[in-house]
Amino acid sequence: MTNATITGWGKAMPPATLSNDDLAKIVKTSDEWITTRTGIKERRISHVDVSDMAAVAAHHALAAAGLVASDLDLIIVCTCTADSTIPSTASRVQEILGATGCAALDLNAACSGFIYGLVVGTNMIKAGTNSKVLIVGAEKLSYHLNFADRSTAVLFGDGAGAVILEATEDDVGVLASELGLDGDARDLLAIEVTGTKGTRQSADPAQSGIVMNGQEVFRRAVTTMGDSAVRVVEESGLSLGDVDLLIPHQANSRIIDATARRLKLEPAKVFVNIGSYGNTSAATIPVAIAEAVEQGRVEPGAVIVFAAFGAGLSWAAAALKWGDRVEPVSTSDAALPTTDKTAMELIQPNIDFFGLA
Ligand SMILES: CC(C)(COP(=O)(O)OP(=O)(O)OC[C@H]1O[C@@H](n2cnc3c(N)ncnc32)[C@H](O)[C@@H]1OP(=O)(O)O)[C@@H](O)C(=O)NCCC(=O)NCCS
Question: From atom 15 of ligand 1, which residue's Cα is the shortest distance away?
């Protein structure tokens, strides 16, 4: 039976770093509050577009897989912060890579987006429609940050991660998955004014950024991520003791801890990098995959569980068996352009638009 296995991985994190102490200079918060309530110490602020970060991550993933862009037959860019409504961010990624002609689409399931993309890509390969698929999670959430709202401004950051999925006859890849969404909770986390319901020009700045009921999102996330993660392990015919690594969406370290407890996993089996990047939405999991492999946290044949939740409210989980290669076939020197702007300078347009509290 044809399966889909991850053969390449990569990331692109913008260099400008916004620390908790930086934030404390512009909004009533503290490093102590942010660290203890979320686990976040700093986040990256991008000076380039989502497609630029996505393309650099993709170059690294292609090199790790030993492929060139023209080998791809499908590109899925998972993002809720697209460069433009049309054409898609995926079209720009395809253009930058030079993967002319291959199918390309954006997928928006917010922070659950990468797992949605992983499952769609896997099933396209299993169906025989595609054989070499690039899946990118890339976000520029800083564009939407209202620094007058301390309950959201401290949580999010920018970045991109990518994987290559290839067809294989080996018994590896996604073993079980679950995608879901509770539309009746869609108002709990929203950026509405960039859609056709409104525009920034006519909207109240206070309603123009990320609007979130943090406590309710937290309550639902804690239950949903753990439950769905346990279900995919059970559905894959494995037991919790077979899980080698949990790579969870990085939204809040307390939510990650609760998910790990549900899976009865010791901390050594949980990948956490939220301290460095905050919540980069669809990018958190592919960035974590790239870092986990680079750090030797993924063994050949490892059983990895992914779990996420996000706006929608969407959720997703997958149990995956890694293939036999954890070394990149090759490396790429692709990099984002340099910038002399600080993170504080990069967020100044937000402060000009939204104001400060
Ligand atoms: C946002 C979140 C960190 C807030 O943590 P919390 O423990 O629920 O905090 P609360 O909302 O109960 O607020 C407690 C107090 O801290 C204050 N507070 C909120 N943000 C703060 C900040 N950045 N710095 C200092 N104080 C802050 C609140 O105003 C409140 O003060 P009050 O008691 O005087 O009213 C937490 O709810 C969360 O992580 N939710 C999930 C959000 C998420 O992951 N969204 C993305 C989904 S993919």
Answer: 151
The CATH H-level superfamily of 174-321 is: Thiolase/Chalcone synthase (3.40.47.10)
CB 286, CB 114: distance < 8 Å: yes
- What digits encode the pLDDT tens for the residues 20-73? 999 999 999 999 999 999 999 999 999 999 999 999 999 999 999 999 999 999
Alpha-carbon distance 349 to 41, whole Å? 23
> Which distant-in-sequence residues (6+ apart) come within 8 Å of 26 by Cβ?
147, 351, 356
72: closest CA among 3, 126, 134?
Answer: 134
Q: Whose Cα sits closest to atom 17 in ligand 1?
A: 151
Q: Say whether 60 is catalytic.
A: no
Provide the whole-model pTM. 0.97
Respond yes or no: is residue 102 known to be catalytic. no
Reported as a single tens digit per residue, the pLDDT across 316-354 is 999 999 999 999 999 999 999 999 999 999 999 999 988
CATH of 3-170, one of 3.40.50.720, 3.90.1150.10, 3.40.640.10, 3.40.47.10: 3.40.47.10
Alpha-carbon Rg for the chain, nearest whole angstrom, is 19
Residues paired with 355 in a beta bridge:
none
Q: How far is the CA of 223 from the centre of ligand 1 (A)?
A: 18
